[in-house]
Amino acid sequence: MVYNSIRDLALSFFVVGLAILQIPVIFALTFFDILQKIVLRRAHPRQIVITGGSSDIGEALALEYAQPGVILHLVARSQSRLKAVEEKCKRLGCTIYVHTIDVADNRTLQKTLLDIYKDRPIDLLIAGAGQVDDFLDTDEDHGLAVPQREDMYSRTFDMNVIGIMNTVMPIFNIMKNSGYGGQIAIIGSASGFIGSYNMVFYNATKAALNTFARDLRYLGQECGIKINLIVPGLIKSPLNIQDTSFPRNYPIFGSIQILAQVIKSSLSQNEPIISYPNYQFIGVYGVGALVPTVQQWITWSIGLFKPQDTKII
């Protein structure tokens, strides 16, 4: 009886003492959490690498980040376009280097990225190189939708999936091994959730990137690397406006300049998924979550898919 009373009393003191000790710990954790958020908001990446930086979203992001004190590295295939963006960024006061590389060329790309990192750690890598040229033409003799080029399947996947992984994984590994950390943003697309029939290969590549970025974020959290997925909707970009193959019944919404601003702000807050315009993202994500019969009826009715008599091969 006495033993039980002493045991209960000791246990009570232990529990009370533990609760008291938790108070300063809770305050300390709260303080550091607030401090981390303040630092995160004020911290700006200094060395930034953008693949696909010669046009469209990549160019808009380069111009958004270009300012005194920032070191920009732009990677793209077109030397002339890179030079044009380089001149614009220089006028904004940043230090800029351009690299004419095809991201599907794994050896050259990895060497360039590692050389950049050795010179100074990369604070932010934006993997956005890709292409949207898998529009399908109709074979009038057989009524089939066929690719415009025979190599379109492999080329689209090489650029949009393999090229992105060629970009991301070497830097992810070196960030992990160095302990410096960093941030990697992967540009997917809302069409990775649901998209137009005549962009079947593009949609598949973006679906792969959406999943890749989502899962890589969990791996990055273990070693202090921030991974973010960017899923733009339909925006007013030179690609969408000038491409005569782009479906004319598509509503084109959103400013590419506002998109760049949203991406920059959201990356500073380490948001896991960055979308613009948001209502488009919510719409396609919501439709993609419906049962297949309802999903196909809705998408067909708004012109995203061809009528039933058209076959895709």
What's the gist of this structure?
This protein has helices at 2-42, 56-65, 79-91, 106-119, 152-178, 200-221, 238-242, 256-268, 278-288, 292-301; strands spanning 47-51, 71-76, 95-100, 124-127, 136-139, 144-147, 182-187, 225-232, 273-276, 311-312.
- The whole-number mean of residue pLDDT values reads 78
**Strand/helix succession:** HEHEHEHEEEHEHEHHEHHE
Largest sheet: 7 strands, parallel
CATH class of the largest domain: Alpha Beta
**Structural class from helices and strands?**
alpha/beta
Could you please say which CATH topology of the largest domain applies here?
A: Rossmann fold
Number of helices: 10
Q: Quickly give the CATH architecture of the largest domain.
A: 3-Layer(aba) Sandwich
CATH superfamily of the largest domain: NAD(P)-binding Rossmann-like Domain
Tell me what portion of residues adopts beta-strand conformation.
15-25%
Q: Which descriptors apply to this entry?
A:
alpha/beta; oxidoreductase; disordered C terminus; 313 residues; 2 domains; seven-stranded parallel beta sheet; globular; three-stranded mixed beta sheet
Structure description:
The protein is α/β, with parallel strands linked by helices and 313 residues long. It folds into 2 domains: 1-40; 44-302, Rossmann fold (3-Layer(aba) Sandwich), CATH 3.40.50. It has 10 helices and 10 strands. α2 packs across α8, α4 (106-119) runs parallel beside α5 and α5 runs parallel beside α6 (200-221). The protein is globular, with a radius of gyration of 24 Å. The chain starts with a helix and ends with a strand. The model is unreliable at 138-145, 242-246 and 305-313 (pLDDT under 50).
